[in-house]
Specification:
The protein is α+β, with helices and mostly antiparallel strands. The chain has helices at about 15-25, 50-55, 55-60, 105-115, 125-140, 150-160, 250-255, 270-285, 300-310, 335-345, 370-380, 410-415, 415-425, 435-440, 455, 465-485, 490-495; strands at about 5-10, 30-35, 40-45, 65-70, 85-90, 95-105, 165-170, 175-180, 190-195, 200-205, 215-220, 225-230, 235-240, 260-265, 265, 290-295, 320, 345, 355-360, 385-390, 430. The protein folds into 2 domains: about 5-245, Aminohydrolase, N-terminal nucleophile (Ntn) domain (Glutamine Phosphoribosylpyrophosphate, subunit 1, domain 1, 4-Layer Sandwich); about 265-495, Rossmann fold (3-Layer(aba) Sandwich). The protein has 17 helices and 21 strands.
């Protein structure tokens, strides 16, 4: 999961790119980068949040009326500063690229690029692989004068070669901005426009939550297998380069996307409310006494609100969240996640003391964070603590850009719901069903027939995903985490063996 943005206008776009990345910061806090163009390329990228990376001096030198930006959290590759995006190649024309997702055949493509195209890659990032595949494909169209047709033929070649999930923005020097989405539309990508006098400026971004604050009007979602090209005169071209079949990631509505976004026609907020409403049916059947429904902020809030509405039980805020601690799920290294949780959530004791409370969170991965939250609530004096997960049990990794652990580490893959309940220390544990979560999203857009929901079902939309591939990707991610945890104390390293969503 990362956030990407591209803007093409009639004046310097740096302020739009910077503000847009701030609005997409929830999609990645590990690194940020922006590249602009005004007859030459200007790049600034580094590890850290958007506000950490960019300052007045660097923003002032990022000139140009077209540019792209990226916020990263690490999945494939590693979390070094060299893997911050956008990536750049100087031929043909000079191309910069930012990518959200994960290529499942990156190793094979990297080998082919070296052996057949003599192209050396500087990082282990699949995004650099994707950039080079695109640049080679564009070069092979032999464009003396680049046209939209050249761009679309190059994207078509990318679709033939790359497997997995990829939503992309790219900047072609002197020519324009390209955006494309893989043939399954697993990761979101959206298009907007803004009036500039009698002309129009365009934006491409992961989520339309970034549009309104920048005065862009949402046009539509970029379709699976579609590419759009905004040329240097700000004329929009689009083409379906490969016939696709929409299979969006279900986890976008469960956790990843901002609540004010509308993804593939479905309000993220309303989908989460409906997930809570469906979950209420299970809890009602259990016949337990609940005094208050309390969300684990922030993602659990709309789910808890929908659930409390259906049960006609009071909704209360029981935690104060430290706004200066980021989303712990997307922090690089479990030791940092565990340590940050100690500072992140503080209980309001009066909401817990002597009460039977139902905690509502978006999901449970390894269970360690849920266990800690239950301990905090018991420490605040709660009489009985019940726990509800707005998503189904997570039983398998996700190979498309979510940093979920290997199957052996997923608590629901190896233990029953009763065993999980005992582990986290709750008096009762409830999970949403996959049918209810799908229905909650599909109600907003009945045209979505299928989802990418393999982490809940073990069934993946792209045929190359096998147990062997998942194991290979899992080994690489474990090495990534180990690199962070090796730098922590022994106690923190032990905590690094557990990870959960917050």
């Amino acid at each position: 999961m990362c956030g990407i943005i591209g803007v093409s206008g009639y004046q310097d776009v740096i302020q739009d790119l910077y503000d847009g990345l701030i609005l997409l910061q929830h999609r990645g806090q590990d690194a940020a980068g922006i590249m602009t163009y005004d007859n030459q390329f200007h790049l600034k990228k580094a590890n850290g949040t958007v506000r950490d990376v960019f300052h007045t001096k660097s923003l002032g030198r990022l000139k140009g009326r077209m540019g792209i930006g990226h916020v990263r959290y690490p999945t494939a590759g590693c979390a070094s500063e060299f893997e911050a995006q956008p990536f750049f190649v100087n031929s043909p024309f000079g191309i910069a690229l930012a990518h959200n997702g994960n290529l499942t055949n990156a190793r094979m493509l990297s080998k082919r690029l070296l052996e057949e195209e003599y192209m050396h890659l500087n990082t282990n990032s699949d995004s650099e692989v994707l950039l080079n595949v695109f640049s080679v494909a564009l070069r092979k169209t032999k464009p003396k004068h680049l046209t939209p047709d050249h761009v679309f033929r190059a994207v078509k070649s990318v679709f033939r070669q790359c497997t997995g999930a990829y939503s992309v923005v790219a900047l072609i020097g002197g020519h324009g901005i390209v955006g494309f989405r893989d043939p399954y539309g697993i990761r979101p990508l959206q298009l907007g426009k803004r009036k500039y006098g009698m002309k129009e400026e365009y934006i491409i971004a992961s989520e339309n939550a970034a549009f309104k604050a920048l005065d862009f009007e949402f046009i539509r979602d970029i379709q699976p297998g579609e590419a759009v090209f905004i040329d240097r005169k700000n004329k929009l071209h689009s083409r379906i380069c490969r016939q696709g079949s929409l299979r969006p990631c279900l986890f976008e509505w469960v956790y990843l996307s901002a609540p004010d976004s509308v993804i593939d026609g479905v309000s993220v907020y309303k989908a989460r409310v409906r997930m809570g409403e469906s979950l209420a049916k299970q809890i009602k059947k259990a016949g337990i006494k609940i005094d208050s429904v309390i969300p684990v902020p922030d993602t659990g809030r709309p789910m808890a609100a929908g659930l409390a509405d259906q049960l006609k039980i009071r909704y209360r805020e029981g935690f104060v969240k430290n706004r200066y601690i980021g989303r712990t799920f997307i922090m690089p290294g479990q030791g940092l996640r565990k340590r940050s949780l100690q500072f992140k959530l503080h209980p309001i004791d009066l909401e817990f003391k002597g009460n039977n409370v139902l905690l509502v969170d978006d999901s449970i991965v390894r269970g360690n964070t849920s266990k800690k939250i239950v301990e905090i609530v018991r420490g605040a004096g709660a009489k009985n603590v019940y726990f509800a997960s707005g998503s189904p049990p997570i039983i398998s990794p996700d190979p498309y850009g979510i940093d979920l652990p290997t199957t052996s580490e997923l608590i629901a893959a190896n233990q029953s719901i009763e065993e999980i309940r005992k582990f986290i220390g709750a008096d009762g544990l409830f999970y949403a069903t996959i049918e209810d979560v799908r229905a909650a999203v599909r109600r907003g857009n009945p045209k979505i027939k299928k989802f990418s929901d393999g982490c809940f079902t073990k069934h993946y939309p792209t045929p190359e995903v096998t147990p062997q591939l998942l194991k290979s990707l899992g080994c690489g991610r474990n090495d990534l985490r180990k690199g962070f945890d090796d730098n922590l104390t022994e106690d923190e390293g032990e905590g690094g063996k557990m990870m959960a969503l917050v």
